[in-house]
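Researcher: Let's do a round of design. I'm pasting the structure tokens now; please hold your answer until I've finished.
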């Protein structure tokens, strides 16, 4: 515990897959398959004995992408396939784009609770998404006389497209970004300039990746596996990343009433997974596991669904305050780039210095596999903090329906480590 009596929770292992582009290298794998690979790597990096893991918290947003509709078993199947004790319980959480961050928040809460309430001290957090496999759904009614038969006809839904609409609020995700950007005075030129920067930073990070002999993107591991049909799968880079230019981005048509959102300045549809192992610090020290990085605080807040992209604003303010910090002490940020217009509004409201935000590119260039993104942000943040010698970092994402989530972490080996 800290001097103030709070439990100290360490990130003892962290890893993420490369992010695959839609219908790309990872498209044949299920979220569960990818989650197993990420979880195994995080466990290996932490040197954690599998029998020491007390619980699993998993996240997968788009159901029905695994063969046979097995997505409902996602965290439990990951635990079993990773050879954890059969007695180890598993929980699925769902907070849409904040689901990955929610796995960390839920695990943090479990570990921080008194032992008489919850005695878990080591928790695996894993999140995966295979957006390439999101199905079309035939919504035919079951027959009254025979429950196992269906009526003819019925509406056909593209499960991805319908979920991007928020019917209750009479809006859609890209419309919320357009409206938020309009309210904040954001221009299309600014959106395209930001998107161009995201692509440029992601390309630079790829060149400097540890996969290419550099020291960037240390959280990513080369993915070597087999697809269900037996073909070999190899991926050692974020597949969505490509060169772009401001001129090319500006030529793309606007898709929203104010023209702020285009196909080039919105997050990329993609596939991927990420995992972290959290442990109570005393437990980690006892077993000799890494204790350098700690989860310090979190925040979750709600906003008007019509401007859902501003969700990081209350979430970040909560998280930073709970960490006992002034915002200026955050030395590195990962703010999910759902849309350029949305990020730019958050940047303005929080007064962020873009030089220390998404320094290796963001979801516009890398991709946004929904559930996996929150843990991906934390993994990339943690390894970049180590690379730069930064003491405090914060990751945050907006969430469909009008929410935001944020998590503050610290590098306890840096001199500015005391709250």
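Researcher: That's everything. Go ahead.
Model: Designed sequence:
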């Amino acid at each position: 515990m800290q001097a103030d009596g709070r439990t100290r929770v360490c990130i003892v292992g962290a890893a993420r897959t490369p992010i695959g582009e839609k219908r790309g290298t990872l498209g044949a794998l299920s979220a569960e398959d990818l989650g197993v690979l990420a979880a195994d790597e995080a466990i290996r990096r932490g040197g954690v004995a599998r029998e020491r893991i007390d619980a699993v918290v998993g996240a997968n947003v788009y159901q029905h992408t695994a063969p046979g509709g097995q997505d409902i078993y996602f965290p439990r199947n990951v635990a079993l396939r990773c050879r954890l004790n059969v007695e180890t319980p598993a929980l699925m959480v769902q907070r849409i784009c904040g689901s990955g961050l929610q796995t960390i928040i839920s695990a943090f809460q479990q570990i921080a609770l008194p032992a008489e309430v919850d005695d878990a001290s080591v928790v695996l957090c894993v999140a995966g998404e295979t957006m390439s496999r999101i199905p079309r759904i035939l919504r035919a009614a079951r027959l009254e006389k025979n429950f196992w038969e269906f009526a003819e006809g019925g509406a056909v839904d593209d499960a991805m497209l319908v979920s991007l609409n928020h019917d209750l609020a009479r809006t859609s995700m890209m419309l919320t970004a357009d409206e938020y950007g309009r309210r904040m005075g954001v221009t299309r030129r600014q959106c395209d300039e930001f998107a161009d920067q995201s692509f440029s930073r992601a390309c630079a990070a790829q060149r400097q990746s540890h996969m290419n002999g550099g020291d960037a993107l240390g959280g990513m591991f080369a993915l070597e596996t087999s697809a269900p049909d037996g073909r070999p799968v190899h991926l050692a880079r974020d597949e969505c990343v490509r060169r772009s230019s401001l001129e090319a981005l500006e030529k793309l048509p606007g898709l929203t009433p104010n023209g702020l959102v285009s196909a080039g300045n919105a997050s990329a549809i993609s596939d991927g997974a990420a995992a972290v192992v959290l442990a109570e610090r005393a437990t980690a020290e006892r077993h000799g596991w890494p204790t350098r990085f700690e989860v310090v605080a979190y925040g979750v807040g709600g906003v008007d669904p019509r401007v859902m992209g501003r969700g990081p604003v209350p979430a970040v303010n909560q998280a930073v305050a709970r960490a006992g910090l002034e915002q200026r002490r955050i030395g590195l940020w990962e703010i999910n780039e759902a849309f350029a217009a949305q990020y730019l509004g958050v940047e303005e409201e929080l007064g962020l210095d873009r030089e220390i935000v998404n320094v290796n590119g963001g979801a516009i260039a890398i991709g946004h596999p929904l559930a996996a993104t929150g843990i991906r942000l934390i993994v990339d943040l943690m390894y970049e903090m180590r690379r730069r010698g930064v003491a405090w970092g914060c990751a945050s994402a907006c969430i469909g329906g009008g929410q935001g989530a944020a998590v503050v972490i610290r590098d306890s080996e840096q001199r500015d480590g005391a709250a």
